[in-house]
Specification:
The chain is 29% helix and 21% strand. By secondary structure, it is an alpha/beta fold. It folds into 2 domains: 19-242, 3-Layer(aba) Sandwich (Rossmann fold), CATH 3.40.50; 253-346, no CATH class. Bound molecules: adenosine-5'-triphosphate. Keywords: ATP-binding, Nucleotide-binding, Transport.
Length: 347
């Protein structure tokens, strides 16, 4: 484990957390054909964070950076390979079946594709009531009342109760999935790319709905996205992942106003901005995410980094406080502003 238990510089030691992850990691053995030896992929290589109640932590990175694997561990769809995961001071990483059942009621997930998560032969009402049927002793009337209440909160009408998922648009279907995930009143919702499959025109509506629901229900979100632009207005904290590791983690303002890791800056460059001045500083990310079977030596970002130095090719930078965020970069400076993006060769 090469990442220390991270605490943001602005956090007090006693800060309350509804969820706390320490050094969560997951590796997979992957067969490479009949003749070849199997290989190990480190999908997540030590992620730590504390999630404050009613807050949103965004997990951002390219496809293959380990976001979905992390989301599956946070919801205990998959047990962590190592590390601890605490909900209200109970470590669930090694929990027995009974504790796990309770945990699953408290931490729910919304997937990218609401088609896949909804049974086409089940009415919307039954889909939303199902978690209540499985996890509570409520009567049929009470379950129906709860489902109708949650449908109203997500912007669905009572007559939608008896209809089937195929009768709804993508945005409405995601509202149904959100209602189903919230009907047990979980403390935490893990949202894995919840608007990526939706038309651009309905994305903002669903994001606004999530903000409203957080305020009215007091739920905390872990919001997984490949797009920093999507989380810009709703994240309280942002954790940027690269090849299974956290490369930068901090409050939203620090990540958007003074990003320090060159990878964060490249991701920001790829998001549309209203201010054309900001484009002057555009960083185009060259090359692809390296194979997780054979990660580069030293800093995993070094083959694509405009600031690469000799040290980066041999030594992994630790995730450490720089300004008001945590950054894993030998070139990032401990100053309030962004890391200057000149090539090392120009220095
Ligand atoms: N069950 C699995 N078996 C083998 N390898 C896996 C498994 N799940 C994920 N991986 C590998 O782990 C790495 C991280 O994958 P993951 O899906 O978590 O990334 P991601 O950032 O969520 O990407 P995407 O947005 O494409 O889902 C990838 O190299 C992937 O191939």
């Amino acid at each position: 484990m090469n990442q220390p238990h991270e605490h943001l510089p602005h956090e007090s030691a006693a800060a309350q957390a509804v969820m706390e992850a320490v050094d969560l990691a997951q590796s997979y053995e992957v067969s490479r054909g009949l003749m070849a030896k199997s290989a190990t992929v480190k999908a997540v290589a030590g992620i730590s964070f504390r999630l404050a109640p009613r807050s949103t932590l965004a997990i951002v990175g390219e496809s293959g950076s380990g976001k979905s694997t992390l989301a599956r561990m946070l919801t205990m769809i998959e047990r962590p390979g190592s590390g601890s995961l605490r909900l209200d001071d109970v470590d669930v990483a090694e929990a027995d079946a009974r504790t796990l059942r309770r945990y699953r009621g408290e931490v729910q997930m919304v997937f990218q594709n609401p088609y896949g998560s909804l049974n086409p032969r089940q009415t919307v009402g039954k889909a939303i009531e199902e978690p209540l049927l499985v996890n509570t002793t409520l009567s049929a009337t009470e379950r129906r009342e709860r489902a109708l209440d949650m449908m109203k909160r997500v912007g669905l009408r009572p007559e939608h109760h008896g209809r089937y998922p195929h009768m709804f648009s993508g945005g409405q279907r995601q509202r149904i999935a959100i209602a189903r995930a919230l009907v047990l009143r979980p403390k935490i919702l893990v949202l894995d790319e919840p608007v990526s499959a939706l038309d651009v025109s309905v994305r903002a509506q669903v994001l606004n709905l999530l903000v409203e629901l957080q305020e009215s229900l007091g739920v905390a979100y872990v919001f997984v996205s490949h797009d920093l632009g999507v989380v810009r207005h709703m994240a309280d904290e942002v954790l940027v992942m690269y090849l299974g590791r956290a490369v930068e983690h901090g409050p939203r303002e620090a990540i958007f106003e003074a990003p320090k890791h060159p990878y964060t800056r490249a991701l920001l460059s790829a998001t549309p901005v209203a201010d054309p001045e900001a484009k002057k500083d555009r960083i185009v990310l060259e090359g692809e995410l390296p194979s997780p079977f054979n990660p580069p030596k030293g800093c995993p970002f070094n083959p694509r980094c405009p600031l690469v130095m000799d040290r980066c090719r041999v030594e992994m930078p630790p995730l450490e406080p720089k300004g008001s965020q945590l950054v894993a970069c030998w070139a990032a400076q401990d100053t309030p502003g962004p890391t200057p993006m000149r090539r090392a060769a120009d220095a």
